[in-house]
Prior knowledge:
Helix content: over 70%
Structural class: mainly alpha
Strand content: under 5%
Distance between the termini: 57 Å
CATH architecture: Up-down Bundle
CATH class: Mainly Alpha
Order of helices and strands: HHH
Number of domains: 1
Largest sheet: none
Amino acid sequence: MANHKSAVKRNLQNQNRRLRNRTVKTRVKGVAKKVSLLDKSTDAAAVSQELTAAQSVIDTAAKKGVLHHRTASRKISRLAKQVNRLSAS
Length: 89
């Protein structure tokens, strides 16, 4: 347990950040899963809209510092690749 005033404050700050980051990470996972579960029967416009929404959420997470910018880029790239594969077949 923290013994100094500054360490106590640091603990509280870390807990708050952890909770804030957890909600953002959960949202990222949710939109990624939503895009992943799309199938061939889904309308192309709907797929495009879902991908755009997912990109926005992932970019926002990177901007907030929850995800590293390269991790965000990799996630977006993989989702786009998956959607393109879906639309090609």
